[in-house]
Design goal:
The protein has 14 helices and 4 strands. It is mainly alpha-helical and 279 residues long. The strands form 2 sheets. It has a two-stranded parallel ribbon with strand order 1-4. The protein has a two-stranded antiparallel sheet with strand order 2-3. Helix 6 packs across helix 11.
């Protein structure tokens, strides 16, 4: 079997392959970012199982979180399949499913409200945070919130080969329409950069981080995806319907939704203490 080194031509072809497979923009960027790192690590060495295992060991040695390592290995295995080198695939790291999350990673409702207060003089950022948390959308889906969709009270999202409809709560709809009118937006995306382009993930992430000091919230908790998780926990606490929640979030597997619903270790400990099994 011919052994090849990873080149820019391979990465460009991999990009085209992922687009053909109808992967989302975020997924394509993630895979390519991971494979650019792998290519740098491999240098001129040809692709082999040995180099793939060495890459896995390198990631482990750098102290990355297991979830991060596994996501990068998934990218690698997909790339190896694309190259026709499935024989070089490596196993992801097996971990026992956690029943609770770290308290320092979970954004609470109180902290969310403090972020909104800190953003009160920044209308667009305030509304972006509220929109993600009130609907459970991915930050990449903000661009689907157009003036036309908001007037209809629902947003249709095409993602990962699926179509789902997001209903907009009445109070949020009014805020979005007022904001659009104040910016003279009658059609198209509501959330825009100064240059008139739809807000992207990195811009929202950076702007949210700028609120941490004023809001008194640990920066490690402040990123768009944590707003989506707060929506999930709040919805489930009220409805107790994980299947419906999975549909709203656009998850193909309920197992993914379960991860969103993990309580903190502190809450888990309180539940254990309430069992009353220690005399």
């Amino acid at each position: 079997m011919k052994r090849v080194s990873v080149t820019r031509r391979h990465l460009a072809a991999f990009r085209a392959y992922l687009w053909k497979e109808e992967k989302s923009r975020a997924t394509v960027e993630k895979y390519l970012r991971d494979m650019a790192c792998f290519a740098q690590f491999a240098a001129d060495r040809p692709v082999s199982r040995e180099i793939a295992i060495a890459w896995k060991q390198y990631l482990e040695g750098r102290g990355y979180a297991v979830r991060t390592i596994n996501s990068m290995l998934v990218s690698l295995n997909r790339f190896l399949e694309f190259l026709g080198r499935s024989d070089c695939r490596v196993k992801t790291i097996r971990v026992q499913r956690q029943t609770y999350s770290a308290a320092e990673q979970e954004l609470s409702r109180e902290e969310y409200l403090r972020l909104l207060t800190a953003a009160q003089n920044r209308p667009q950022l305030h509304l972006v945070i509220e929109t993600i948390c009130a609907t459970g959308i991915r930050v990449s889906e903000l661009r689907h919130f157009t003036a036309e969709a908001v007037r209809q009270s629902e947003v249709t999202i095409h993602c990962k080969g699926k179509i789902r409809t997001i209903l907009i709560p009445g109070a949020l709809r009014k805020k979005l329409l007022r904001f659009a009118a104040s910016r003279g937006i009658a059609a198209g995306p509501i959330f825009l950069t100064r240059g008139g382009k739809p807000l992207d993930r990195s811009t929202v992430w950076r702007q949210m981080k700028s609120l941490c000091g004023l809001a008194g919230v640990n920066p490690a908790k402040v990123f768009p995806h944590n707003l989506r998780k707060l929506f999930a926990r709040t919805f489930y606490a009220m409805e107790k319907d994980i299947a419906k929640l999975a549909d709203i979030l656009g998850h193909s597997s309920i197992e993914t939704t379960r991860i969103y619903l993990m309580t903190t270790g502190r809450e888990h400990l309180r539940k254990l203490e309430r069992l009353g099994l220690v005399t």
